[in-house]
Design brief:
About 40% of the residues lie in helices and about 15% in strands. The chain is an alpha/beta fold. The strands form two sheets. It has an eight-stranded mixed sheet with strand order 3-2-1-4-5-6-7-8, with helices on both faces. A five-stranded parallel sheet has the order 11-10-9-12-13, sandwiched between helices. Strand 12, helix 14 and strand 13 form a beta-alpha-beta unit. Helix 4 runs parallel beside helix 5 and helix 10 crosses helix 11. Bound molecules: ligand SAJ.
Length: about 400
């Protein structure tokens, strides 16, 4: 199958880089987003998210006319859906964005089109997309129940890129492509072959959906193991970082790093899609979620205990983002910890976050935003929350006489 025009639905952290990369391969890309602000920003050759080098690629493909953004879908040879899939209050997946995207493109679909869902989704979602589309377009045949000879090809191909390395990983990572039929998968592969240098593996849509969830749940479970070890080591008065370094000298052991909790919009969310699909069997996966979600409160309790030793404690909180050297604050355990500390009025909180210019709204007026040196000079307690590169270089003398609570194991 050849592609003259590709439409990407959802121009966020995944959709925009994907649209830009495909456009950079000489294909006309129509980016569709419900936000007029996002569309206007992109059409000016600018970006609304932070990701290294993305601004350069977007500027170039907008200038050459290969990428244009719009709020109204247009006909295309292929449609790639990259919209969010959050969970609701009860941890059940919220598929409303995917359903809305399917209904948005339904009117412009033409015979022979390919649709690929990239959003992280519970097993069975691609089949649901086919059902929604079939309802919206009764004049067309969709690959429901594996029926061959459909008018539209539908596949699932999860994104697997690491924030901060998106442009490299979009090209170099292997992809898992699951079709509702073998023909659907084959057509989807021909789309990915345009820009992916990694291998593309063919499977069915349900397996591809589960592969993505399994990858992130695997990481979550492994981080939970490290976090649980950190609690046990505190009880037994063992340095967990030294312990992990030594255990990892075993040829078949690779323990991950404990931290203040697991953040971001993927690993802290996706395992719930497995749990909601099979709650009776997803026992380790659920426990891992609970262990990781419990870590922020554990850190708070440690800070409160340390603060009890001071009359009016000053606490330097180093880092707010969900992991090192990015500006992304979504689901950040560091924010959760600072919020709880500020609500419980533990002491004066000085916040250092080199990757942002303004404090998030939830902390405005409650904490003081300052520079690293100032925070270290004033602090009784230094609470290290994120292993940003700026904090790796803190000289030991700057920490002398302070109580150190290092959730990432980087301070000497
Ligand atoms: N973390 C630890 N200890 C570790 C590793 C991570 O506490 O040893 C914490 C981080 O600080 C962070 C959270 O876990 O708060 C998640 O960070 P991450 O770097 O593990 O992952 P993400 O969320 O940035 O990206 C993940 C990746 N998935 C896997 O590595 C299996 C990425 O490839 C996916 O594309 C992405 O989720 C996604 O979009 O699903």
């Amino acid at each position: 199958m050849s592609f003259k025009t590709v439409s990407v639905i959802g121009l966020g952290y995944i959709g925009l880089p994907t649209a830009a990369i495909i456009a950079s391969r000489g294909i006309d890309v129509i980016g569709v987003d419900i936000s007029q602000h996002t569309v206007d920003t992109i059409n000016q050759g600018k970006i609304h998210i932070v990701e290294p080098d993305l601004d350069i690629v977007v500027r170039s493909v907008v200038q050459t006319g290969k990428l244009k953004a719009t709020v109204t879908p247009e006909p295309a040879d292929a449609f790639l859906i990259a919209v969010p899939t959050p969970f609701k209050n009860d941890y059940q997946p919220d598929l409303s964005y995917i359903e809305a995207a399917a209904k948005l493109i339904a009117p412009v679909l033409e015979k022979g089109n390919l649709i690929v869902l990239e959003s992280t989704s519970p097993v069975g979602t691609t089949e649901k997309v086919a059902t929604w589309l079939a309802e919206a377009r009764p004049d067309m045949i969709f690959p429901l129940k594996g029926s061959e000879n459909a008018d539209i090809n539908l596949a699932y191909c999860p994104e697997r890129v690491l924030p901060g390395y998106v442009l490299q990983e979009l090209v170099s990572n292997d992809r898992v492509v699951g079709g509702l039929t073998a023909e659907c998968a084959e057509k989807a592969i021909s789309l990915y072959e345009i820009f992916v240098k990694g291998a593309c593996y063919v499977t069915n849509a349900r397996t591809a959906e589960m592969a993505k969830l399994a990858e992130n749940a695997f990481r979550d479970v492994n981080i939970a193991f490290a976090n649980e070890l950190s609690l046990i080591c505190d009880t037994l008065q063992i340095n967990v970082w030294e312990l992990i370094k030594l255990s990892n000298r075993h040829p078949r052991v690779n323990i991950l790093n404990p931290g203040p909790g697991v953040g971001g919009h993927c690993i802290a969310v996706d395992p719930w899609f497995i749990i909601s699909s099979d709650p009776d069997n997803a026992k380790i996966i659920k426990t891992a979620r609970e262990v990781n979600d419990g870590k922020p409160q554990y850190v708070v309790d440690r800070v409160r205990k340390a603060a009890d030793r001071f009359k009016s404690p000053v606490i330097a909180c180093l880092g707010l983002s969900f992991k090192a050297d990015i500006d992304d604050l979504r689901e950040s355990p560091a924010i959760e910890i600072v919020e709880i500390l500020s609500e419980s009025k533990v002491g004066q909180l000085l916040i250092v976050e080199p990757n942002i210019d303004v404090l998030p709204k939830s902390l405005e007026g409650k904490v003081e935003y300052t520079k690293l040196n100032n925070a270290l000079d004033m602090a009784d307690i230094v609470l290290l929350l994120v292993d940003h590169k700026q904090f790796l270089q803190i000289p030991p003398e700057k920490l002398q006489g302070r109580v150190i609570i290092d959730t990432r194991g980087i301070l000497s």
